[in-house]
Design brief:
By secondary structure, the chain is of the alpha/beta class. It is built from eleven helices and six strands. It folds into two domains: 140 residues, Response regulator (Rossmann fold); 61 residues, Arc Repressor Mutant, subunit A (Orthogonal Bundle). A six-stranded parallel beta sheet has the order 2-1-3-4-5-6, sandwiched between helices. The radius of gyration is 17 Å and the shape is globular.
Length: 216
Amino acid sequence: MSTRILLVDDHGIVREGLCSLLEKQPDMEVVGEAEDGQKTLDLVRELVPDIVVMDITMPNLNGVDATQQTVSKFPKVKVIALSIHSNKRFVANMLKAGASGYVLKECLFDELVQAIRIVIGGGAYLSRQITGMVIGDYVERLLTDANQPLEILTDRERQVLQLLAEGKSTKQIAIVLHVSTKAVEANRRKIMEKLHVHSIAELTKIAIHEGLTSVE
């Protein structure tokens, strides 16, 4: 039986290339593609893939939060991060969210195939370039660090924070989330209260620092 794969990346050319290569594997089948975390959740619910190959920095809902929600709601679905980011915080956040693998985009395609086969077999996979980051108790210490301000936000508040940091207006956020502008404004006020900040600029700085979005 083929491994059913959902590809998630905000760049169409990346998805197209990966799809073409994965479809050549005799034991793999690409069942869907998504360009952001919100669409990912919809497709995971509809398709129930075996593996989600997940980008991290995406609009509307980032890969970390999409991974956390996928794993919590669909525990049989495995997530492998495929990212340009080798930064410690991105790696740690994805592992904490429940990803079973982390592959860097600079790696060769064969490494992604290897990661998929290891993870579907019940294992975990990290690119060699980032393995050193998890030696000893580093990740455990990082993930239990109390100084993580976003831990106190709800899933919806995290998504609103990301969208604000991406420069979207209240009206645009309301459209993305299918809610009223008043609901968005209420979320924004609550986020500011919880994080003890007083401007969108401060919120944006926190979102970038915590890996919700990127300046790239």
